């Protein structure tokens, strides 16, 4: 009777919809989702949580949602809309997790009911976490409102909050039951958030899809000047690549390979060194530039590919140098390598490009070549367009 | 570009070992597990958490563990052993979750390291929860020390803590990476915990395995008199049935069928009505008796089967009546039906037996027949052996 080997698979499915004006009466997308999920005998509820930063730009939203749900009875709308502060602060305050759990309790949201979150990646991460731990997981629907959350975080399976300043220290892998990307939200982002979200698209193109990279080169000026049609294509293709990556690989990251961390070892450190004044996407743009210069110096990435990458990032409006890169002391950017190694459990793994669309993992990085790459960025940096 | 359907499966595997004297130098089981998991370049750590209620009965445990790990270097033992109070109080105090998370932080336990918990179902539920939410899931190893946790909760995929007195309000579905059932722990349980754990075994036998039921009938006296060999068989077979149930069905309970809740609608309420003086397993014994009497009254369960079930439970030493069953007011036992319906999301589903080993779900329960069944238990109850 020595041992029994348990083994099973759990299947997860969810649709990711691309739409505009989600809550207009003529748009049946969301309601059709609830209708498909309807089960005779169950009165399902929907509790809405808003990113406070979205409301001033979309003041009609609460009334539109109330009107949208008034026409049906497959799902019962909880009349109170809960709002939480937008941005990273949403993930820093443990009281917000408590507040969301208290709301789940107060409105008796059970495992057959829904928590619907409208907001940027930060608020989605917070709400996804609260939903995941309540009743061992309440169904949650994401309505992402930023470029980053529509093309990356919102379509994925992770959630999380910070703990004593440690990023995403608490969190789970739990997929949403549905994602609704409404492009209209993107029109009200400030320029920095519009741009920052694009860098994760450049990242997936660089590691997975040279054709997508070419399309971004063609659209670079339009994207930099906030052309919504160009952005729709970018968000859709980037989301699609993420979705495929998750399904094709290791959705809950049980192994140790993390190709999507391309450009991130220095980016994380740069965000931290600048006290998060540099946004994540902005830092990733710099981090990718740095690792591409490095790959070129070790003879991997050809000059032509390198120049195309630096040009695309600059045309998009990214600044590719920040003085914090040169704070070359024990707490400087190179310390990011050590922290990244620790984060990975003791063994450093960094993806570097052989060509646009093709990366290979390395386990060592030469500090001197990193310093040379930083010097190059410092000397060549011009003002963003 | 309207929608993308995401769809993927995640595979979970873990061994459930049955052993004795897990930490004796001659027992290589645990060390072999760590060796199999070893990856070149990663220094994995193991953080041990103890159920405080186990230590007085097994005072040699900390020294034995230290000695056991001293002989190897595939895994680094964290020298501090953390202890948390045993029993339900472990799940009632949010400060304990914080304390465990702080330890994960303090000792830099990453996603490749282990949290190892030694304790009853309550402490395992707490530690499993803390491990599941730290870094989106640290590998956790369960070493269950009670009958219930060895044959049921410890081999499954759920964890949880209570929130404002609401049982398991917070929790997740996250499998352990391994379970080590050491039968020696069972020898130090008090009689009530020894017995209470048996009732979940009677439950799975009643809904899944008539042969197992017969074996328990044959072993009933031995079990009642704490025969460890009889208990080993029971724990192994019950664990096996649970493991098969999880793998064969709906591991993360996404649907609404819950056959393992047999006998539980009244059990939950009875625990609550007696302020948890009646233990879960004791309440389940009464709940099963009640639902079997009910099934007999509606013409499903034959007299002979009914009598065998009541006899087995009584021979095992269970008391099948409690005065709280007769507190027939708006807060009485029948209120448990309403709460169970709400818990299920609006539709009542109760499994009732047609025969030993064969259950069928119903969606309505006749209150008057429940009252008659309670009256029968009151009138026929004799003192437990
Ligand atoms: N879960 C994941 O897989 C994953 C992946 C990448 C990043 N993230 C996380 O995402 C977070 C960043 O998310 P983000 O980039 O979406 O930014 P954000 O959520 O921090 O939002 C930035 C600001 O934009 C505001 N805002 C949101 N939508 C708006 C709109 N439509 N119009 C105007 N203002 C709007 C917000 O209120 C906030 O002030 C980080 O915490 C990061 O860790 C998570
Ligand atoms: N996660 C699941 O799937 C699941 C399933 C069923 C029950 N549970 C939970 O399990 C909990 C009950 O667990 P339990 O029945 O194991 O009891 P328990 O963990 O509450 O322990 C009961 C008492 O026994 C002590 N103890 C533990 N091991 C001992 C030993 N070897 N010798 C002497 N004393 C020992 C404990 O310190 C405690 O005082 C409940 O909270 C219940 O909700 C969870
Ligand atoms: Zn990123
Ligand atoms: Zn039970």
Automatic annotation (TrEMBL), chains A, B:
The keyword Lyase applies. It holds the Pfam family DHQS_C. Gene3D superfamilies: 3.40.50.1970, Dehydroquinate synthase-like - alpha domain (1.20.1090.10). The keyword Amino-acid biosynthesis applies. Residues 197-328 form the 3-dehydroquinate synthase C-terminal domain. Residues 82-195 form the 3-dehydroquinate synthase N-terminal domain. Keywords: Amino-acid biosynthesis, Aromatic amino acid biosynthesis, Lyase, NAD. Its cofactor is NAD(+). This is 3-dehydroquinate synthase. The lineage of its organism: Bacteria, Pseudomonadati, Bacteroidota, Cytophagia, Cytophagales.
């Amino acid at each position: 009777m020595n041992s029994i080997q348990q083994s099973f698979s759990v299947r997860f499915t969810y649709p990711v919809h691309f739409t505009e004006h989600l809550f207009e009466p003529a748009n049946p997308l969301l309601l059709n989702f609830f209708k498909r999920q309807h089960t005779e005998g169950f009165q399902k509820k929907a509790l809405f949580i808003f990113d406070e930063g979205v409301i001033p730009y979309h003041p009609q939203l609460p009334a539109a949602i109330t009107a949208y749900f008034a026409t049906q009875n497959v799902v019962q709308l909880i009349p109170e809309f809960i709002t939480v502060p937008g941005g990273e602060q949403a993930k820093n305050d443990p009281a917000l997790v408590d507040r969301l759990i208290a709301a789940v309790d107060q409105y008796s949201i059970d495992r057959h009911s829904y928590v619907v979150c409208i907001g940027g990646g930060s608020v989605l991460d917070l709400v996804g976490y609260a939903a995941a731990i309540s009743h061992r997981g309440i169904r949650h629907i994401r309505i992402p409102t930023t470029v980053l959350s529509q093309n990356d975080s919102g379509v994925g399976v992770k959630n999380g909050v910070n703990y004593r300043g440690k990023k995403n220290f608490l969190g789970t892998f739990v997929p949403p039951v549905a994602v609704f990307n409404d492009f209209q939200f993107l029109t009200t982002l400030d320029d920095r958030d519009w741009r920052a979200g694009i860098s994760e698209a450049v990242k997936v193109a660089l590691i997975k899809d040279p054709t997508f990279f070419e399309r971004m080169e063609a659209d670079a000026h339009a994207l930099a000047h906030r052309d919504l049609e160009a952005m729709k294509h970018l968000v859709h293709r980037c989301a699609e690549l993420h979705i495929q990556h998750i399904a094709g690989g290791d959705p809950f990251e049980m192994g140790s390979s993390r190709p999507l961390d391309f450009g991130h070892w220095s980016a994380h450190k740069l965000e931290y060194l600048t006290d998060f004044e540099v946004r994540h996407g902005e830092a990733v743009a710099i981090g990718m530039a740095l690792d591409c210069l490095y790959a070129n110096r070790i003879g991997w990435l050809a000059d032509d590919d390198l120049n195309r990458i630096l040009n695309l990032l600059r045309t998009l409006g990214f600044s590719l140098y920040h003085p914090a890169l040169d704070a070359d002391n024990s707490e400087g950017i190179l310390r990011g390598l050590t922290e990244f190694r620790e984060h990975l459990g003791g063994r450093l793994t960094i993806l570097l490009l052989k060509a646009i669309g093709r990366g290979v993992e390395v386990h060592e990085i030469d500090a001197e070549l990193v310093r040379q790459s930083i010097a190059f960025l410092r000397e060549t940096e011009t003002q963003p367009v």
